[in-house]
Specification:
Aspartate Aminotransferase, domain 1; 4-stranded antiparallel sheet; AspAT/PAT-like; 391 residues; 7-stranded mixed sheet; alpha/beta; Aspartate Aminotransferase, domain 2; globular; EC 2.6.1.-; transaminase activity; 2 domains; pyridoxal phosphate; 14 helices
């Protein structure tokens, strides 16, 4: 007996990039103290009031099938939030509720790409991007960027990869780099999509975590609303990672196509979780800002630490809960640096190589532990790097 080849194809027969995280999890389970900066999980959990709303809904009997694209009231609230943030007219007909942003990414590619189609994404990338594309039968094609460009794609490289492609997946504010793409970059992306008739899938799950400037959705650029799918989620904006509630914003015909997929896969998101999400969205922008505030504060703390040393270089960080550090001066790869840091200092970070080849020689730091421990971890990381640099 054998398994379907499609499962092995999801990882391309190689690593899924999470080895350091798995080792860290095992060490912590064994009682070994580790300063864990590997994963984008809030250190403050879902607000009790949201949990109370979830409990109230469940106890009221909303525990049955939630067949369909989501409750219309929730879809309307998501549309209202998106319209207020982006300035683009959005109605409930442009929204489908999905099992988290990851479910939205899969559904978007399933709706747009046929087996064998070339689907582009930017390197470095969130670790699931290539596997998500492969799972749909499409061919994943990374578009490389450079550290000196803050890992933002350039027009020449985008244009070189675009001919014959069906879609392009982007992410800003960006995981893993913490970079918020400039207007110039997004206008370049939009122009390439228009010139080559590409669908654009814009992962905007970190839209509430902007430390400098403002969020610009490419859907707001001229001629882009009709060819852009936006992925959103309650996970990062409302610290609801485990609740698994996300969405896709798209033209109504795309939403109807994704609804067909949902009927034959997930059967929807539980109604009591949808009700909790509706309650959370009604708390407004100030609530989202409060969830984001620890990461804004830690970004400032990190810059103060990093400005006092020369061993590592911070990639310009303007959003999300991550820092990308260039550690090439140590002579180590990101993977070797992360492995030795874990073994010798019991500090866990993600190698840049976990997110593609473009970030080799870098490590990603998640700003997801309390302030004092976070500063301590960064200071020790910098001292560790300085020792390797001197050697």
């Amino acid at each position: 007996m054998k398994l379907a080849e499609r499962i092995g194809a999801i990882t391309g027969g190689g690593s899924d990039g999470w080895e350091i995280y798995y080792r860290t999890r095992d060490l912590l389970a064994a009682g070994v103290p580790v300063l864990n900066l590997t994963i984008g999980e809030h250190d403050v959990r879902t607000d009790p009031a949201i949990l109370a709303a979830m409990d109230q809904s469940a106890r009221a009997g909303n525990t049955g099938y939630s067949f369909g694209p989501g409750k219309q009231e929730l879809r309307a609230a998501i549309a209202e939030r998106v319209a207020a943030q982006t300035g683009v007219a959005t109605t409930w007909e442009n929204v489908i509720v999905t099992p988290g942003g990851q479910g939205g990414l899969f559904a978007a590619h399933m709706a747009l790409c046929d087996p064998g189609d070339r689907a582009l994404y930017i390197d470095p990338y969130y670790a699931t991007y290539p596997g998500t594309i492969r799972a749909t039968g499409a061919v994943d094609v990374p578009v490389p960027t450079r550290s000196r460009d803050a890992f933002q794609p350039t027009a020449d490289v985008l244009a070189a990869h675009a001919p014959g492609a069906r879609s392009l997946l982007i992410n800003t504010p960006n995981n893993p780099t913490g970079v918020v793409w400039s207007r110039d970059t997004l206008e370049t992306v939009a122009q390439v999509c228009r010139d080559h008739d590409l669908w654009l899938i814009s992962d905007e799950v970190y839209d509430s975590q902007i430390w400098d400037g403002a969020h610009l959705s490419p859907r707001a650029l001229p001629g882009m609303a009709e060819r852009t799918l936006v992925i959103g989620s309650m996970s990062k904006s409302h610290a609801m990672t485990g609740s698994r509630l996300g969405w896709v914003i798209a033209p109504p015909e795309v939403i109807r196509a994704i609804a067909v997929l949902a009927t034959n896969t997930t059967y929807g998101v539980p109604a009591f979780i949808q009700d909790a999400a509706l309650f959370a969205l009604r708390q407004g922008a100030d609530f989202e800002a409060a969830v984001a505030e620890p990461f804004r504060r830690r970004r400032s703390l990190a810059r103060a630490v990093l400005d006092r040393q020369q061993a590592v270089r911070l990639i310009p960080s303007s959003g999300a809960m991550y820092l990308m550090l260039d550690i090439r001066a140590t002579g180590l790869s990101g993977a070797a640096f992360a492995e030795r840091l874990l073994e010798q200092e019991r500090i866990a970070v993600m190698p840049g190589e976990s997110f593609g080849t473009a970030a080799a020689g870098h490590v990603r730091v998640a700003m997801t532990i309390e302030d004092r421990a976070f500063v301590t971890a960064l200071e020790r990381l910098c001292a560790f790097a300085a020792q390797r640099q001197a050697a």
